Amino acid sequence: MLATLIPLFDGNMSVCAYSVFARKENHFLNPNLEGGARYDGAGTVHELEVVSSMGVSTLSGGKEVFVPINQFSIFSEISLQCTVPANKVVLLMDNTIKPEEQFIKRVKELKSQGYKLAMRKLPIIQFEPYREILNKCDYILLNHSKIDIQKAKIYFTAVYPNIKLCAVNVDTQDEYDELTKDGGYDLYEGSFFRMPVKESETEVNPLKVNYIELLNVVNDADFDLTDAADVIGKDPALVISLLEIVNRMALNSEITSIRHAAAMMGQKELKRWINTAVTKELCADKPSEITRLVMIRAKFAENLAELYEMAMQGPELFIMGLFSAIDIMLDKTMEEALDMVVVPKLVRQALLENSGDYYKILNFIKRYEDADWIEVSRLMVLDNIDMDKVYEAYLNALRWYRDLIPVT
């Protein structure tokens, strides 16, 4: 099994839902499976296996989860496959589900069971023939480059007033900004939120300069605990977070200073905590999905280390994942951002040059995030990596993130 999550944003860059895409088999080893589609099999919705095993809290922070279904799986016993509340699941249909009596009847049944419904890959010419199905839909996913949203908004408001319009394939920040300015769409899906910074436009926020200083202290080859403690002391939020952690560790000991707290944690744990805590702070003025993205990347990369025979490099791979969007965090190009922080040579090579041993893992993770199962399968075959171990590494990263940043 393979699975990944793709976010859907609103006009304020807040994540409102996630689409979960799963793959049961290694496509590269089973090329006769349905054209590399993101689902396979007839009677089982593999995405629902993921949702049920992990729960919507772990997967999406309690937000709705879009689950693809096809012309076969729509007739499966969905209620038996899914153990989470039906109103948290959006069954994502496509044009393989025809506006025919058997499908219309099934769509009505699923709606009556409490599931939300969405339609994708539906050309404009099919809007009218699909009227009975669209009347039951809560969302429709539209390719923004092929539709006049103002005309579409008028049409859907008049004919389907309860349906939400989702723009897909939003690949750049400029596209997102233009679409949100024009209005019309309720949700947006695409890679725009994590596109590399091509040109620096701002000075680094003074508070972020302090965080960069702290990162450089702890990522030095043999940093001094007192130096790290002194930099932590400049930021009240970090001080509070550090004391909360240490007080849980030292049940019967009185913490007398920040230096004392740092010493209690020790060099290894302090370094790990600072890298994750500071990354959260650097992302504070960015879409929340950036924090989630880099945190899960970091843990996923660390978990994959053993599979790539790099177990000893796990901590550095964790750093690579954390810093994989540092250009976005600092509003600098990747080269300028990496010139500001201390990172291992192989991490810099992976992030800046897209080369080296570490880049193999970073590239794999990015393909995995995009649900590019054909390429993911090919890479697993090339490196003799077990698919189930990859899946467990990803789920472990999701659980770690859930526990690191509890849902509030």
From TrEMBL:
InterPro entries for this protein: dGMP_Pdiesterase_EAL/HD-GYP (IPR014408), HDOD (IPR013976), RNase_Y/CdgJ (IPR052340)
Domain HDOD: 204-389
SUPFAM superfamilies: HD-domain/PDEase-like
Superkingdom in the source lineage: Bacteria
Descriptive protein name: HDOD domain-containing protein
Species this protein is from: Butyrivibrio hungatei
